[in-house]
Design brief:
Largest sheet: 7 strands, mixed
Helix content: 25-40%
Distance between the termini: 31 Å
Number of helices: 6
Order of helices and strands: EHHEEHEHEHEEH
Number of strands: 7
Radius of gyration: 19 Å
Strand content: 25-35%
Shape: globular
Length: 229
């Protein structure tokens, strides 16, 4: 910004996905630089296409890993589900890459994906550069990817709870590298019937609070930005 002014920032609720090429070090030993670049480039392109198609943003390319974020610059009520659909589509694309390029080059290609939902500090003005963002939500996303087996998608509890159209296998609490507290992880098992939101117990004496919640919800829908209640 002119004069080195600091851009204002705010908390944003995002869902991030991190896609990684499995066994990249071994693959790099087998392939010449041109073919390796073609494989990594194909993975990057798959992420760009599938994340962009669902109105997410693609951030940093970290070696053979790719970061995608839903909720920036525009937020959607179903960002966690958009991220999961993108993740499924990316794996389908990479399966096709393995059948084509992998067999031709005599290497086994597979990707794995971590997905996580949480708060992130982001600028409210100017161009968005995901490569400059940092935060625990992104760190956990990358670590969840390490928990996944080839061809799998592993998500955090918050993402699983925010995606009622999907089914998950509970992996329990897992330790993740570089983090003192463990993470409750779930493996994406497929698409399931949408479960209705169940509110347990009546809202007796909570009319004012419920009215405030409704007002905040209407504001979020109208402005396309998340808000704290």
């Amino acid at each position: 910004m002119p004069g080195g002014a600091v851009r204002p920032i705010e908390h944003r609720l995002v869902t991030a996905l991190y896609v990684d090429l499995v066994g990249s070090t071994a693959i790099a030993e087998q392939l010449d630089p041109e073919n390796l670049a073609a494989v990594v480039g194909t993975l990057h392109q798959a992420v760009r296409l599938e994340v962009g198609r669902r109105e997410g943003s693609v951030g940093a390319f970290i070696g053979d890993g790719v970061l995608g974020v839903f909720g920036l610059p525009a937020a959607h009520e179903d960002d966690p589900e958009r991220a999961l659909r993108a993740a499924q589509a990316i794996l389908r694309r990479f399966d096709a890459v393995n059948r084509d390029i992998g067999r031709r080059l005599n290497v086994a290609l597979a990707a794995r994906i971590g997905v996580n939902t949480g708060d992130l500090l982001a600028p409210t003005t100017g161009d968005l550069d995901l490569g400059t963002l940092a935060g625990d939500v992104l760190n956990v996303t990358a670590r969840l990817q390490e928990v996944a087996n080839p061809g799998q998608i592993v998500v955090s509890e918050r993402t699983a709870r925010s995606a009622p159209s999907f089914r998950f296998d509970d992996l329990g609490v897992v330790d993740v590298r570089g983090r003192a507290r463990p993470v409750h992880a779930f493996r994406l098992a497929g698409v399931g019937e949408r479960r209705p939101l169940v509110v347990r117990g009546p809202f007796l004496g909570r009319e004012d609070a419920f009215g405030s919640l409704r007002s905040t919800f209407n504001k979020v829908v109208a402005e396309g930005n998340p808000a704290h209640v």
